[in-house]
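REQUEST ID: PR-0412
SUBMITTED BY: lab tech R.K.
PRIORITY: routine
TASK: structure prediction, single protein chain
INPUT:
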Amino acid sequence: MRENQREVLRLFLLSPSHPSWASLFRPNMFTLFLFYEALTVSTYPLVAHKGTPEAIKGARTYLAILIGTSIGLQLIAVVWTWVIAGTLDFTRGGILEGHIAGPMVAVLLALYAFGIGKAALMPFHRWLPAAMVAPTPVSALLHAVAVVKAGVFTMLKVGVYIFGIDFLATTGASVWLMWLAAFSIIAASVVALTKDNLKARLAYSTVSQLSYITLGMALATSMGALGGGMHIAMHAMGKITLFMCAGSIYVATHKTDISQMTGLGRAMPITFMAPS
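STATUS: complete
OUTPUT:
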């Protein structure tokens, strides 16, 4: 009897005429926005985990920048897209061609690019170094697996399935983003070299590496987008290894500054060989 009831319920929920919960998982920009925000809120306690004044301040910076850019910029872009295109569904070739033209294409792209704060595009990158107050495993999660990858993944989805690579190439709307991403790559790398704290250096390295993915999309070529997608996986594996090494060094020696680590390679050869 119970099996029959379950079968009836399953058929009812999957019926095309029934607005089931499955509709929440439709491949569109609104669904992505909802779960993008859920990720921000759910990771806030991880950043504030230590409960110290420094941790609380860093967590507030983290939340303020990500929520602020998302609500103040990305949501406006999503609503604007729906108004002019009549849909938010991810579609090959994009959904905006024929609905928007001229400088407004670049303006809409800017709302998305800066609204996707998790991509850490300058100048909205400050949340990422601020989140370094979190424990090292949390830092690894933020920088390598979940949060930043959600940002650049969203950036690629917007470029490929909302605007369309060919549309961006034809209008030239992403040229400014290409130059900004290139600037972020260089600037963040230079700042990283000035940081003595290992986690801070890795944080700015992440800002730089994420901009490579944004640059791939901004190039408005299929190979650029493909390269950006591949770099997501490469950076995830490389950066989580680096953070695990930083955590290993801290647990073994309680050292956090690079200037204190002279000679540690001989004492911890496996840890220092792992990133290579």
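NOTES: The chain has one domain: 27-258+266-273.
REVIEWED BY: pending
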